[in-house]
Amino acid sequence: MQIVIVRGAGDIASGIIHRLFKSGFKVIALEIEKPLSIRRTVSFSEAIYDGETTVEGVKAVFADNVKTALSILEDGNVPVIIDEEGLSISQIKPMAVVDAILAKKNLGTNRNQAPITIGVGPGFCAGEDVDYVIETKRGHYLGKVIYKGSAIPNTGIPGLINGYGEERVIKSPCDGLIRHERNIGDLVKEDDIICYVGDLKVKSPIKGVIRGLIRENLFVTKSMKIADIDPRGEIDYVYTISDKARAVAGGVLEAILNGLSKGGYYGY
Prior knowledge:
Elements: E1 3-7, H1 11-22, E2 26-31, H2 47-50, E3 52-55, E4 58-63, H3 66-74, E5 78-82, H4 89-92, E6 96-99, E7 116-120, E8 132-134, E9 145-146, E10 169-171, E11 176-180, E12 187-188, E13 193-197, E14 200-203, E15 208-213, E16 219-220, E17 225-230, H5 235-238, H6 243-263
């Protein structure tokens, strides 16, 4: 069985997993013990907490070991394993490894892990630590496959949606446990209370729909991203894979097919 391992299962990684799954690949996701996904309605990482989750018709199921993960694959689903260090990669021996952690740096993915290795976003160099890099910066080059070199460095400035960039991203005002006042999918106005961190109120900076909100009762740190308001106000967008995730996923699929054609792995 030829397998693709995707490190990470947040919204961008889940867009990649979904595209690969729909293209006929067997995919296993690796996550941390307590995922911090914001767009939880479209993140396979939620399987870690809930046992299973479904994104646009594709079901992910938590697996506590590799044997269980392989069984979940045989059932036609996506297994999600807690494996922050990627230790299971050598055991599974995948055809390809995709690092979609989006840490803005390489946390250990290297070309010795699989015949095809892909780094998503900044922090990787195609031709050195991985075979391919996928551009994640919104704009003209989003989703581009980089065959030599690196992605555009992280600017720390969110891409614009309906003219809003930094305004649509909500960050924690302090360290503490998060408690929800509103839910993902709720329409809010400017200054509506979204949640509390400790005893501090966190208000919506703009009018829109809550597209993302970090899981309740998690401990968050000051300035950590905890929510995302979509100024377009389209409820359907909350529950579907984003244009950015689809573009990046298309780049990953191109890179894998390119690697397959060069390495003679057709027939997976």
